[in-house]
Amino acid sequence: MATKERSLENAIKTKLNEREAKEFNRIYYGREEHCELELKESTLTTCDKENIDVQAYKFYGATEEARKPRLTKIGLVQHSIVLPTDKPIKDQQEAIFQKVKNIIDIAASEGVQLLCLQETWSMPFFLCTQQKSPWISFTESAESGPSVMFLRKLAAKYDMVIISPILEIEEGVWWNTVVVIGESGNIIGKHRKNHLPSAPGSSCETPFYSPGNTGHPVFETKYGRIAINICYGRHHALNWLMFRLNNAEIVFNPCATLANFGEPFWHAEARNAAIANGYFTCCLNRVGKEHFIINTEDGDNVVDRSYFGSGYISAPDGTRTPSLSTVRDGLLITVVDLNLCRQTRDRWGFIMTSRLDDYAKELKEYVK
Amino acid sequence: MATKERSLENAIKTKLNEREAKEFNRIYYGREEHCELELKESTLTTCDKENIDVQAYKFYGATEEARKPRLTKIGLVQHSIVLPTDKPIKDQQEAIFQKVKNIIDIAASEGVQLLCLQETWSMPFFLCTQQKSPWISFTESAESGPSVMFLRKLAAKYDMVIISPILEIEEGVWWNTVVVIGESGNIIGKHRKNHLPSAPGSSCETPFYSPGNTGHPVFETKYGRIAINICYGRHHALNWLMFRLNNAEIVFNPCATLANFGEPFWHAEARNAAIANGYFTCCLNRVGKEHFIINTEDGDNVVDRSYFGSGYISAPDGTRTPSLSTVRDGLLITVVDLNLCRQTRDRWGFIMTSRLDDYAKELKEYVK
Question: What positions belong to coiled-coil segments (chains A, B) (predicted)?
Fold first, then answer.
C-alpha cells in the first residue's frame, strides 16, 4: 500500500487537473502521458503485501523499414537493508539475498530481461564509517563470491542478464566493481568505478579502493549493448561520453547517494546524459535508513545514513519515467526499443557536430 | 499583467499547499524558497504596463574569512520581434532596438551589471527560411555594426557589461557571434558559436556560417569571469567543460530554441552544466511567434516559428531560479555571489576527481 511519503511526485499528484497534469508532464517527463505497462494481478498483490513500489512503463521507437523494433525489458531494483548493521555479517547478507530474490522472482514473472541492482547491493553502505574492519567480510571475488554465485543461479534460471554492483577483493586489494552476469549464469565481464568521492568526511571512498582501471567497457549482451557508470561517475560528463563513443545503448547508474547531497539534481544528471549521448540511462539508488555504531578508543560514535531511492529511466529523446519511491523498496520495469537510440542520434546530430578532434587536442594541451 | 499561459510553473502554482510547495521546490529548484529580491515600484509599474515578465532572485554564498562576497547582478532579457518580417529591415531593427532599450533602462534602474540578450537578438531568426537574401542586411561588424554601436552607448551610460549575440560579417564571411561589450563601451572580445545544428530541414545553420574558430575564451570583466556557450553548444558537454577549465565563473547560453525540439529538456541541460562544472549558468531563449513568407519560383512558402522563452539561472550548487514566461517578453534579475563557485567545487571535488589526463588519451585514441 502506498504510504504518504515526501516526494515531488506525491506533491503534485492529485493536485493538478487533467490539462495541468499534461502540461506538467510534457515539461517534467518530456511527454504528456506516462505510457504505463499493465502488470499481472499476482505482481500487484505481492508488491502490495510486501510494500514494494512497483511501476512499469514503455518507450517505443518509430517503425523502420529495414529493422524490426528491438525491445528489451529492463528492471531496476532498490531495496533497504534488512537486519541491524551489528548483526553477524553472514546473517545480514542472507537476509538481503532473501529480500532481493523475492523481487527478482517478481521481475522474472513479468519477463524482465536485463536487471540492475543498487550500488553494493548485498551489504549496508558501511564505507561511511570510514573503517575497514569488520566489513572486509562483505568483499568478494567478482567471479565466485557469494553474491555473485547467488545471482548466477537466478540469471540462468530466468534467462536474465543481471548487473551486480559489489565490493570486489582481488589479491587483497579492494575495488568498487560491477559484475555483468549473462543469461546462462556466465560472467560477461566486470567494470570498476572510475571516479571516487574524495571530499573530507564520511563520504570519502579513497581509503578503501582506487579509481577503476577498466576504462569504459561496453558489454554485448543478449538484450543490448550496455555499460555501467557507477554512482559518483554520473557527475563526470566524459565518463558518460566514453560509454557513448564505445557504442553503449543503455547505461546503468547504480548509486548510493544521500538526500542532503544529491537529491535535487538527481533528476537532471542521468536525464541530461541520455539526451547528450543518445542512449537510455537507468539510474537507481539505495533506499532506506542505515544506522552504524562505531567503537573507537574514545567511545562509541553513531553514523546514520538515509538514501532516497527515486530510480528512473530516461530515453535518448529526453523523455523519462516517473521515479520510484523515496522510502520504500521498489521495482521499476520498463520496455525500451533500442532503435530509439539511432533514431534520436540521426535526428539531432549531436555526435556529428561534436568536433571531438578539436577537443582531444584542447584537452591534451590542458593536461600538459 | 500576467496572462494565463502554458508553463510548468503555472501548472503547479496555486495548486500546492505550503508543505507541498516546499517539497516540490526542494527537488525541482534545489531549494525550498526562491529567495526573491525586492523590485522598485517603478519597475513593477513599467513592466506591468509593457507586459514584461520581471522576476528577481538571489544566490548567496557562505561567509569566508579571507574573501568578501563577490556579488554580481545579472540580467537576462527575452523579447519577441516587433514588426512583421516583410517590413523594411531598418524598420524592423529600429523597432527591436526601441523595445530592448526600454528593457535595458529598467535593468539599469535596478542596478544590473552584467546583461545578456538572446541569440541574434536584433532580428527575426530568419535562418529557418534557409535563404540568405534579403537577410544579409542583418549581418554586421562585431566592432562597429548598428546593434553593437547601439549597445556600446548603453553599456557606457549604465556602467554595464553587455553580452550581445549577433550575426557577424567579416570580409564577406558570416559568423554566429557574441560580442562582449565592456562597461565603458569598449569591446572586450568576441566568441563564435562552436557547434551548429546540422540536421536536414529548416533548423540547419551550416549553409550560413562555419563552426566557430575562437576556441573557448573566458573574458575577464569588471563583474566576473564570463564565457558564452551559444545555443546548440549546450548539448555538448565538452564545450561546457572547456569553459570551466579556462576558469569561467558564469557561462551564458543565449538560444533560439523551438518548443517541439528543446522545451522538455531545457530545464535539465544548463542546470546540469552548472552542477558538473561548478559555475553559474544563465540560459535564455527567444520568445514569441515569427512568421515568414518565402517567395520561391513555385510560389510562396510560409514558415512559422514559435519560441518558448523560459530563461533561468542555475547556481554551481544545483539550485536554480524559476523560469521566465513562455510567451511574454521578460527580464530575469539575479544577484549571485561568485564565491559560491569555489565553495561548491571545493566541497564536491568534481574537478579533482575528473581524471582528465586519462580522458585526453582516450579521446586522442578515439579520434585516430
Answer: none
CA-based nearest residue to B165, from B226, B231, B107, B103: B231
The mean per-residue pLDDT over the stretch A215-244 comes to 98
Domain that holds residue B267: 34-367
Q: Cβ–Cβ of A264/B236 closer than 8 Å?
A: no
Asked if residue A9 is part of any domain, the answer here is no
- Residue A30 covered by a domain: no
Count of domains in chain B? 1
Q: Which of A116, A231, A282, A283 is catalytic?
A: A231
Q: C-alpha distances in angstroms, A2 versus A41, A51, A306, A330, B55?
A: 17, 8, 19, 11, 38
pLDDT in tens, A286-331: 999 999 998 888 888 899 999 999 999 999 999 999 999 999 999 9
**CB-CB neighbours of B134 under 10 Å:** 11
Q: Is B241 in Cβ contact with A348 (below 8 Å)?
A: no
Q: B241–A241: do the CB atoms touch at under 8 Å?
A: no
Phi/psi at A44 (nearest 5 deg)?
-65, -40
Q: List, for residues A91-120, the tens digit of each pLDDT value.
A: 999 999 999 999 999 999 999 999 999 999
Q: Is B282 a catalytic residue?
A: no
Q: Place B4 in a pLDDT band, splitting at 50, 70 and 90.
A: low
User: Residue B297 sits in a domain of what CATH number?
Assistant: 3.60.110.10
Record the cell numbers describing residue A155, joined without a space.
Answer: 540469471
Say how far apart CA A240 and CA A250 lie, in whole Å: 11
Grid coordinates representing B270? 544548463
Q: Is residue A237 part of a domain?
A: yes
Q: How far is CA A92 from CA A8, A142, A175, in A?
A: 32, 20, 21
Residue B119 annotated in active site = yes
Residue A28 distance to chain B (closest CA, Å):
6
Q: What are A97's three cell numbers?
A: 539475498
Say if A27 falls within a structural domain. no
| DSSP classification of residue A258 | B
Q: CA A174, CA A191: separation in Å to the nearest integer?
A: 13
Residue type (1 letter), A208: F
Tell me the β-bridge partners of B282: B252, B313
- Distance, first Cα to last Cα, chain A: 57
Q: Least CB-CB distance to B11: which of A16, A31, A199?
A: A16
Distance (Å) from the C-alpha of residue B105 to the closest C-alpha of chain A?
33
Interface A-B, measured as beta-carbon pairs within 8 A, has a size of: 195
DSSP codes joined into one string, B165-202 = EEEEEETTEEEEEEEEE-TTS-EEEEEE-S----SSST
